[in-house]
Design brief:
With about 240 residues, the chain is mainly α. It has helices at about 1-20, 25-50, 55-70, 75-90, 100-110, 115-125, 130-150, 160-175, 180-205, 225-235. It has one domain (about 1-235).
């Protein structure tokens, strides 16, 4: 659990640094930085998605994941969690999805999806190799500073779902290690990277006015794992 713990700790420290020390950034700098990071996120997401070898499975995963996500309405629950935390620990203003909720939701989705979160957590659980999550911590920390300065303290609280998500994958990997394969990991990572690219699209503003509700697509990441595991069991 060292990798997930370090990743979560770095997010908290850097978000607080951004919130309390790197504040007062002129609006034009803040906007340009956010768009620059958005472009980098789009690039990282698209590049990682090219690891996909089963295009039809990827499409099926997005469709099934979108249906499941909309049915559960993960986006709504994440925003409610952010608003609840804002009421308990924020600035006392409630009734709107303020920066606290936005920072919590955006950072949680960004830090929990993608190949580094998935593969790094699996490596931690399977072999005790934390190098991928350590590298992810550097990237997450850099983003947390900027997010903390622009979106506030809610970004720091994203460390909780990051730790639970990555720690859960690490523990699950230890339990089901015999069923995992490089192909399965690649397919799950490819879907996750497409969601990361969608986050970048929202940040850049390409879908301004009609943002992609990426949280409701999160179940798509797990569809390849379920499908390929069942496929393997059937062919045994």
């Amino acid at each position: 659990m060292l990798g997930p713990l370090v990743n979560a700790a770095v997010i908290v420290v850097c978000a607080l640094l951004g919130r309390f020390l790197v504040k007062g950034i002129p609006a034009r700098f803040e906007e340009t930085l956010k768009k620059g990071i958005g472009l980098a996120i789009i690039y990282l997401g698209i590049r990682g998605a090219f690891d996909n070898k089963k295009v039809l499975l990827l499409i099926m995963s997005l469709v099934a994941g979108a249906l499941a996500g909309e049915l559960i309405d993960i986006d709504k629950w994440m925003n409610r969690a952010g608003l609840w935390a804002e009421k308990k620990l924020g600035d006392g203003k409630t009734g709107t999805a303020g920066n606290f909720a936005k920072g919590f939701a955006a950072a949680s989705i960004l830090f929990c999806t993608g190949s580094m979160a998935l593969v790094g957590s699996m490596q931690s659980g399977l072999a005790g190799n934390h190098q991928t999550l350590f590298a992810k911590s550097i990237l997450d920390g850099s983003i947390s500073i900027v997010f903390g300065a622009s979106l506030g303290i809610g970004v720091a609280f994203a460390a909780l779902p990051v730790f639970v998500y990555q720690g859960g994958i690490a523990l699950l990997s230890m339990a089901i290690r015999d069923f995992l394969s490089p192909d399965l990991i690649n397919e799950m990572s490819a879907v996750g990277n497409l969601l990361v690219a969608a986050i970048g699209v929202n940040f850049v503003g390409l879908s301004e006015g009609r943002e992609i509700r990426v949280a409701n697509l999160i179940p798509a990441v797990f569809v390849p794992g379920i499908y390929m595991t069942l496929e393997r069991l059937v062919t045994l």
